[in-house]
Amino acid sequence: MECTVSWAGSPGMTFIAETGSGHIVTMDGAPEGGGRNLAPRPMEVVLAGTGGCTAYDVVLILRKSGQDIRGCDVTLKSERAEKDPKVFTKIHFHFAVRGRNLKSNLVERAIKLSHEKYCSASIMLEKTAEITHSFEIIDDLAETPIA
């Protein structure tokens, strides 16, 4: 895996990342740090990537478990160290999993497997951060229209 990050130049602190798969991610700094607040901060991108990594795992594991999953949202709330390096010190993941007749024990198992075995991002971050998680199941009683 590789990525190229380039400074967009003056004025400001905007950076453009091009991923190995050919996608573009823009990042910027806070105005007090010379940024113009045009894009997420780099550490916000790290947090978002971690949320995407674990949500991907949870959906995949639940599908493989035969669950009728129809949605998965994860909200991450974090705390960072006050002094440099300002690593994450706490991250709480709250999953809202939507589907039909989802089994609570299988949702809990999927989240646990993601955090302990599959999600490389959260496993890396737990080296500096206390990782906690919670979840809720939203029963989707609405029928999906057939086109």
UniProtKB/TrEMBL annotation:
Short name of one Pfam family: OsmC
Domain of life of the native organism: Bacteria
NCBIfam families: PRK10738.1
Protein name: OsmC family protein
Species of origin: Noviherbaspirillum pedocola
